[in-house]
Amino acid sequence: MADWSDGYITNIEYTSGFYAGLSPLAQNFALLYRGYAGPQLADGFTYCELGCGRGFSTALLAAANPAGAFWGIDFNPSHISDAEQLKQATSVPNVTFLELSFAESLTADLPKFDFISLHGVWSWISPDNRRAILDFIYAKLKPGGVVYISYNALPGWSAAAPLRQLLVERLRGQGGATPDSIDAALSFAGRVRDAGAGYFRANPASGKRLDSFAAMPKNYLAHEYFNVYWSASYHSEVVTELAAAKLTFAAPSVLSEQMDAFLLAPPARELLKEVTDPTARETIRDYFLNAQFRRDLFVRGARQLSESERNERLLQTRLVLTRPPPQFPFKVSVPVGEVTIDANPAKAIFDALAEGPRMLGDILKDPVIAGGDGGNVAFKAITVLLAGGAILPALGPEQEDIRRERVARFNQAMLARFGSERQEHTLASPVLGTGMAVPPTDQMFLAHAAGDKAPPIEKLTKEMAARNRTFMKDGKPASPGETIAQLEAALTAFRQERLPIYQRLGIN
């Protein structure tokens, strides 16, 4: 029987996690910002994640979007077994997990999809599997449907790709990757560098990258660097490949990556004005950014909105605050430098969102926010806050009660895992329709100290001890007295600053 793994590592489990770009609302807003219409969400939609891993992202999105029907597909039986256990533990009814290869998915009894997402898949699979994915998209994506795809990008990977090949060559003929063999390959690459290899002399950043591997989990390194198949692509190459499935590139899925004013210096923006072909412009733009990873949205039958329709839809977008208000003025670091945001109108924007989601149009009508410039300064401030994630798009009020009920069950199941091997660092939000990073200590506080009155600090110290979690001081485990002091300070900051945000987002 042929190797079912088809060159993909299966003896070391892949890392779990949540990827915000998989959210249907985030994808729709990224499309809208670029001027494209996405599928409707409120009346129901279908969603498929290819290569869903252990299913955490798919299950979370299903819990936060009860109007959608979700499918997660992965060829690894241990991944799907874990995903099924997660589904049962969190009682999410609108998600289905299937153990199928990409080729087998073509003949499975599946509906047509509004969204098909694949994260961390395209650059790590064989050409045959890529063709199977394209055939699946061709057969299963609805007209107007969206494909999210992430991949290793060129020219960003040009200097570092030979380092990955060096590691693979060291293991050639020695069997598959294991934690011990990965250590041996890393050690060998270090000795190659120390022996004066010209590659490392010409590419000192690759030597620093090699040093950074020592602190990375072996399961991440295995799947990122040691699969048989690995590639990096120019954006134009991916555009050409996906055109076979009737797909057109629409936008980067990360909103901040659409904002050239924050990413590119003026000379770069002027040069890019000379490039009229959109595929060429996006590819040449990558030479300025030198990013090693792209997350792109493609659409079948993309419908471009008129400027007036785009603006009207933006004004009808609900926004919600995701961070405590900062001290004004404050500076936001961006690739081209820093952007300073003054208290007026930014503070008024935070104040307007303090009670919960509001439509952008209503925010801009506030006389304090609009000021005397027609709202242009306010809109710029909102753009900066969106780019930095201080405010995010929110779902409409439809089905919010159901969303809160489903998310409460999901998050309770996740909080019960606090301190365990499989603890995730993301919880679901019924307001955002997606996940939000919640640090482990905040998860403990949400589980035990989110009520009207905080519990005795001794209860929390016992909880930390039971979960083998410790605070550190000067690089060493804190003493009992230091632990209590740090825990008290962290709890006060949590209840004053972050708990109101979690409550606003429905995470508590």
**SS-based structural class?**
alpha/beta
Largest sheet: 7 strands, mixed
Q: What percent of the residues sit in helical stretches (DSSP H or I)?
A: 40-55%
Strand content: 15-25%
Task: Give the C-alpha Rg.
Answer: 24 Å
**Number of distinct beta strands:** 16
Instruction: Note the total helix count.
Output: 23
Shape: globular
Question: Uncertain spans, ≥5 residues at pLDDT below 50?
Answer: none
Average pLDDT taken over every residue = 90
Q: What is the straight-line distance between the termini?
A: 50 Å
Adjacency order of strands in the biggest sheet: 3-2-1-4-5-7-6
Summarize the structure.
The protein is built from 23 helices and 16 strands. It has 508 residues and is of the alpha/beta class. The strands form five sheets. The chain has a seven-stranded mixed β-sheet with strand order 3-2-1-4-5-7-6.
Explain this structure to me?
The chain is α/β, with parallel strands linked by helices and about 500 residues long. Helix content is about 45%, strand content about 15%. It is built from 23 helices and 16 strands. It has helices at about 25-35, 55-65, 75-90, 100-105, 125-140, 160-170, 180-195, 200, 205-210, 220-225, 235-240, 260-265, 265-270, 280-290, 305-315, 345-350, 360-365, 365-370, 375-385, 400-415, 440-450, 455-465, 480-505; strands at about 45-50, 70-75, 95-100, 115-120, 140-150, 250, 295-300, 320, 330-335, 335-340, 360, 390-395, 425-430, 435, 470-475, 475. The strands form 5 sheets. It has a 7-stranded mixed beta sheet with strand order 3-2-1-4-5-7-6. Strand 15 and strand 16 form a beta hairpin. Helix 16 crosses helix 19 and helix 21 (about 440-450) crosses helix 23. The chain starts with about 25 loop residues before the first helix and ends with a helix.
